[in-house]
Specification:
It is a single chain. With about 575 residues, the protein is α/β, with parallel strands linked by helices. The chain has 2 domains: about 325 residues, 3-Layer(aba) Sandwich (Rossmann fold); about 220 residues, DhaL domain (Serine Threonine Protein Phosphatase 5, Tetratricopeptide repeat). The strands form 3 sheets. The chain has a 6-stranded mixed beta sheet, with helices on both faces. It has a 6-stranded mixed beta sheet with strand order 9-8-7-12-10-11. β1 and β2 form a beta hairpin. The longest helix is centred in the middle third of the chain and has 35 residues. It is globular. The structure holds adenosine-5'-diphosphate and ligand LAUYXW4J. It comes from Streptomyces yanii.
């Protein structure tokens, strides 16, 4: 149970503020996260990591000499936005390019990927790497779909040590990929975590049972077993991790490995040591030499009572990178040569861009859009708990919270844009950016795409016609599929967005006014959302728990259907347009 908080919505920001206050000689806060407080050699590759909050010491606690150059810090269990990642990367880089490294979660992949594209376009070469060490999250044949857990540390450290050694971006990326390919983790848990402000855990495990194959977001496990003794737990962890050797390792015997026994939040250090005692014996018996083992909390999931084992099968190249000195708030090793502290300049003030000129017709359309965004926000607020419950069946339970953060940010940005006289396009573009930035996470990136596409179609001049609105929604569907890679049938919001766009396009092409066409399409959306209950998820956080999600609709599909239905009365009176 997370007991100490003020406003739950401010938890991640307040935790970051306190963290920075506690470590002024190692980290400094920048917009979007933290960077090293010490000076980095000019031209060194910057390793910028990041992810959601709730996983401390991942990710901010791993910033410091010998480890990451910066961390983009998202909200609780939600990836940081592309904007945040870009800001942190710009503050951290010293001319050698940037490697963006993160756990392979849908939201992180979308936001870090977008950030890399934007940085490169701005002249800062950037590469990405999603860590995939959790063997329970996908089969070996689909290793690229696996999620990142405590193996994050090994990969971040290898990359950072390679950067400190003066390698260029291509080489640092190759080394990080090698470390990732040779790292495997597996976890178990005895109880789930409770998010700040929530009154129940994201999942529960029966008193005498242990969940196996756990991630770091309170996702349910892949299976259950009776609670073992410490030795039995060690035997399960070791046999499972040794059961899937990476390419190039034919047998454990004679191998050297970086070993992490990771506590996920509320397993005591002494318990971890009791388990590690047997892990060490078993590795020794298998002929594996544990190099600089770590026993402690390296990547957590709030108060989840769980433990995971990570092995990175070292090579001659990886071993010195693993044993190299580091000095981060939550990870210190050996002695680093202390670099100079950066004396902070004045914080940069964000400058508000003026809005481009718009016609009165477009400003009138913008006022309608603003009213729709107000309704959207209140719909999300009303249904936030329900959306969280649906998401918790097979995901991480944060869909309602993420949608609230995004829709509130979008509405506030739209209010400001309307005050400045924005047309429909500019108002929606500002709302889109604010949604992606405030929400982070998968749905944050995708809703940013949706609002932006509709805004582009509406433009800042003229009065939007019904086919133009329909074309904007169709472009939104195409954009979401392009960015997220999901298709109809994968059990995502795409299963609603595509039929909704199709129905709107057909009805408006028939010459129906928008209000009638929207009504028909909203009914199509509701039916499509309900039908996702029969699908097995193939994308996103719910994918590893496919069977559990049968019978429950997809959270993102459901929220989209609720929203398009709720905004209909707002659009109806003002948009009798054809
Ligand atoms: N690749 C994808 N393409 C389209 N939608 C996706 C994709 N992956 C996940 N989603 C949608 O995102 C929703 C989850 O949103 P959110 O809770 O913000 O995500 P997370 O916590 O997984 O980052 C899912 O219910 C699904 O509708
Ligand atoms: O906490 C995390 C959330 O990832 P999403 O894909 O946004 O759900 C992740 O950043 C941990 O690495």
């Amino acid at each position: 149970m997370t007991r100490l908080f003020n406003d739950p919505a401010a938890f991640a920001d307040e935790a970051l503020e306190g963290f920075v206050a506690a470590h002024p000689h190692r980290v400094r806060q920048v917009p979007g996260g933290v960077v090293r407080a010490t000076r980095t050699a000019p031209g060194q590759v910057a390793v910028v990591v990041g992810g959601g909050s709730g996983h401390y010491p991942a990710f901010s606690g791993l910033v410091g000499q010998g480890l990451a150059h910066g961390a983009a810090v998202g909200n609780v269990f939600a990836s940081p936005s592309a904007h945040q990642v870009r800001q942190v990367a710009k503050a951290a880089q010293t001319g050698g390019g940037v490697l963006l490294a993160y756990g392979n979660y849908a939201g992180d992949v979308l936001h870090f990927g977008q950030a890399a594209e934007q940085l490169t376009a701005e002249g800062i070469p950037a590469r990405t790497l999603g860590v995939t060490d959790d063997i329970s999250s996908a089969s070996a044949a689909e290793a690229h779909k696996r999620r990142g857990v405590a193996g994050d540390l090994v990969v971040f450290k290898a990359a950072a040590a390679a950067a400190e050694a003066g390698h260029d971006l291509a080489e640092v990326t190759r080394i990080a990929e090698l470390a990732n390919a040779r790292t495997r983790s597996f976890g178990v848990a005895f109880s789930g975590c409770t998010l700040p402000g929530a009154d129940h855990p994201l999942f529960t495990v029966p008193e005498d049972r242990m969940a196996v194959g756990l991630g770091i977001h309170g996702e349910p496990g892949m299976g259950e077993q009776p609670v073992p003794s410490a030795d039995e737990a060690a035997e399960l962890l070791v046999s499972t991790v040794l059961g899937e050797l990476p390419e190039g390792v034919d047998s454990p015997r004679g191998q050297r490995a970086a070993v992490i026994l990771n506590g996920l939040g509320s397993v005591k250090y002494e318990e971890l040591f009791v388990v590690y005692r047997r892990v060490a014996q078993l590795l020794h018996e298998a002929g594996v030499e544990a190099v600089d083992p770590e026993v402690g909390e390296l990547v957590t999931s709030f108060d989840m009572a769980g433990v995971s084992l990570t092995l990175c099968w070292l090579t001659d190249e990886l071993e010195p990178l693993w044993t190299a000195p580091a000095d981060a708030p939550a990870y210190r090793k050996g002695t680093v040569e202390a670099a100079d502290l950066i004396s902070e300049g004045p914080a940069e003030q964000a400058v508000e861009e003026p809005v481009p000129a718009a016609t009165e017709e477009s400003r009138a359309a913008a006022r309608t859009v603003l009213a729709a965004l107000r309704t959207l926000k209140s719909t999300v607020d009303t249904h936030a708990d329900e959306l969280g419950r649906i998401d918790a069946v097979a995901g991480d339970g944060d869909h309602g919270i993420g949608m609230q953060r995004g829709s509130t940010g979008a509405y506030e940005a739209a209010v400001r844009a309307e005050q400045l006289g924005a047309g429909a396009e500019t108002l929606l573009h500002r709302a889109a950016d604010a949604w992606a930035d405030k929400a982070g996470g998968t749905s944050g990136a995708l809703w940013g795409v949706i609002l932006r596409a509709i805004g582009t179609a509406l433009g800042d001049t003229g009065r939007p016609t019904a086919p133009v609105v329909a074309a904007g929604v169709a472009e939104a569907a195409a954009g979401v599929m392009r960015l997220g890679g999901a298709e109809v049938g994968d059990k995502t919001m795409v299963d609603v967005l595509v039929p909704f766009a199709g129905a709107l396009t057909t009805a408006t092409a028939d010459g129906q006014p928008l209000s009638i066409a929207w009504d028909t399409a909203a009914s199509t959306a509701a039916a499509a959302a309900a039908a996702t209950a029969d699908l097995l998820p193939r994308m996103g956080r719910a994918r590893p728990h496919a069977e559990k999600s049968l019978g429950t609709p997809d959270a993102g599909a459901h929220s989209l259907a609720l929203i398009v239905r709720a905004v209909h009365p707002v659009l109806a009176p003002t948009l009798e347009i054809r």
